[in-house]
Each structure stands twice: as C-alpha cells, then as structure tokens.
Amino acid sequence: MSTKEMSFQPVSAMEVPRFASIPTFMRLPHVELSNEAIPQVDIGLVGVPWDGGTTNRPGARHGPRQLRDYSTMIRAMHPVSKIKPFEAANCADLGDCPVNPADTMDTLQRVTDYFHQVKAKGVVPLTAGGDHMISLPVLRGLASDGPVGMIHFDAHTDLFDEYFNGCKYTHGTPFRRAIEEGLLDPKRMIQIGIRGTRGGDDVEWGIEQGIRIVTIEEFHDVGLDHIMEEARGIVGQEPAYVTFDIDCIDPAFAPGTGTPEIGGFTTFEAQKMVRKLQGLNLIGADLVEVSPPFDPEGGTAWVGVSIMFELLCVLAGQAAHGK
Ligand code: MN
Ligand code: MN
How many Cβ atoms from other residues are within 10 Å of residue 112's Cβ? Predict the structure, then answer.
C-alpha cells in the first residue's frame, strides 16, 4: 500500500456513469504539480500534447485528450495480477505538460523542465503522448542522475541521426540523442517488435552501441516468454524506463497512428509483455503515437489506455513494495 496519508480514488461508475462529467485519466483526481497535495501522489498520469516531431502523418498532439476520454472505461482491478493500482498507490491526473506547438526547441525545454519537477516532487510519471520525440525531454528530466536502462516496444528503432538535412529532433531520433547525451545506457536497452521496410543506418548504429534489437521475426521464433526474460535480464534491477509506441501493435488493432507497419503484435501479446515487467525498478513509462485524426473509430485510443492500465499496474506494484 502507499505510505501516504491521503487516498485518491477514481470517480465511481456506480455513482456517476462513465460517459458523464469531466474525463480525467482513469477518472482520477486532477492534481497539478503546483498543488499542495502533490507530495501525496505516488504516480502521476500526465499528457504531453505535442506532435511537432512527426515526420509523416501528424495528429498525436490530440492523443492525451482522446486517451483521457477513453480511459473512463477503465475499472479498478487487474484481471490477472489482481493488482488494484488505485489502492496500491496514490494515482492522480497531473494534467498536461506545457508545450509550444510552434517551436520544437522551446518545447524540448518546457517538457524537460516539467519532468525535472515531476522527479523533484517524488512523483513517478506515466506519460501519454504525443509523438515519440517527447520521450527525449522526459528522459532529460528523469535521468539526471546518470544513464538508465530502457525497454522499448516499437515497430521502429527511433535511432536515426537526422532528418531533412540536419534536423536532429524528430520522433525518429529521440533515442540516438538520449544515448549521446548519457541519458540511456545502450547496453541496458532492448527494442522489441522492430519491422517494416528499411532505410538508413539506425539498426546498425544501435547494434554497434550494444542495444539488443529484437525484430518481430525473432520474437515469433524465440517466443514471448524468452524475449521478456531476456529483457528483464538486460535492464536488471538498476533504474530503467519503459516506452511503448502504439505502432508496435498491428494496424489491424491500432490503425490510428502516424507510421503503421503490418505484421505487428496482437493486443493480447502486448498485454502479456507488459505484465512481464512486474518487479523491475522503473522510473517511469510512456505510451506514445496515438493519433486521433487517424483513429475515427476510437479503437486505437482504447488500445492505448488499456496498455496504460497495464503499465500503471506495473508501476503501482512497485510503489506498493516501497521502491
Ligand atoms: Mn514507431
Ligand atoms: Mn517510436
């Protein structure tokens, strides 16, 4: 259980129907970072409504709002682990991190400053993007004590050097920058689900740095249990981050994203992989690249919040054990 004095609970669907009232993440109380109750918060769900790092189809800036709306369907207990995250930890919706939709470098600074504060206030963030570039400033804020490990679910490595003749900051480059900046230890990194037509030196560069890159082909050859066991061994018990790009999932399940790739994970495989992260030493997690304009049915947002709930249960499990 959380060691905090207060207890934050979602709005009960037995009292207020799920479609009613203001949609915070998972119907949790809204507690801004400046709120005096923030020391009581263990896990903060936060949106980063930014897609200026997108190199192709945009729209992920609308992700946090759509994810909040769909997240009102989430109930209290995990069906397999039986974890009740809202009892195991004090969870709150922190609102959205400041961004500047007209300026990438300013946004990088605003997001970095914000996540520095999140860390300083002792809150473990579960972040909803936004495009994948946001993971770079989130890591700048969180990994200020030295490089961390990372488990990365994605169809893409996001290890490119630059786009458009010199642009270093896009959703295809965040983890190359994060390694260069000493935020990530490449030898404690694993990328799972990599696939799609190729171009550039991203995979070769990553392997040279020591990153374990698991293609979707190898995932199916070796099997989910073995890959996740290897992932746990690679990050070990030192601090690590989890980043989940919704495009790792097959577009049959999650078409509402900017860079879909066929041949991806089923939603159930994704759930089972995240469940295997229980008991690690995580400093935070994110779910990125849900693009509502490409998600007219809303199904991708539902996949996204369902994965966020899986991630929340992992973070709440570790909060309950005093990590
Ligand atoms: Mn991707
Ligand atoms: Mn990505």
Answer: 19
**Contact assessment for residue 294 and residue 256, using Cβ atoms and an 8 Å cutoff:** yes
Tell how many helices (H) and how many strands (E) occur in the chain. Answer: 10, 8
pLDDT digits (tens, 9 = 90+) for 91-140: 999 999 999 999 999 999 999 999 999 999 999 999 999 999 999 999 99
Sheet holding 148-153, edge to edge: 91-96, 43-48, 124-129, 282-288, 240-245, 148-153, 184-194, 212-215
Q: How far is the CA of 51 from the centre of ligand 2 (A)?
A: 12
pLDDT of residue 5: 80
Q: What distance in angstroms lies between residue 172's CA and the mean position of ligand 2's atoms? A: 7
* 190 CA from centroid of ligand 1 (Å): 14
CA distance 285 to 37: 22
Does the structure show a pLDDT above 70 at 322?
Answer: no
Q: What is the pLDDT of residues 260-288, one digit of tens each?
A: 999 999 999 999 999 999 999 999 999 99
CA 47, CA 286: separation in Å to the nearest integer?
10
Name the maximum alpha-carbon separation found in the chain: 56
State the DSSP code for 17. -
What are the residues whose beta carbon lies below 5 Å from ligand 2 (ion)?
132, 154, 158, 245
**Per-residue pLDDT tens for 33-78?**
999 999 999 999 999 999 999 999 999 999 999 999 999 999 999 9
Alpha helices in the chain (DSSP H): 63-71, 85-88, 104-120, 135-142, 174-180, 202-209, 216-222, 224-235, 267-275, 299-320
Pair of tokens at residue 44: 């903060």
Beta strands 240-245 and 148-153, pairing class: parallel
Structural domains present in the chain: 43-320 (3.40.800.10)
Residue 188, SS3?
strand
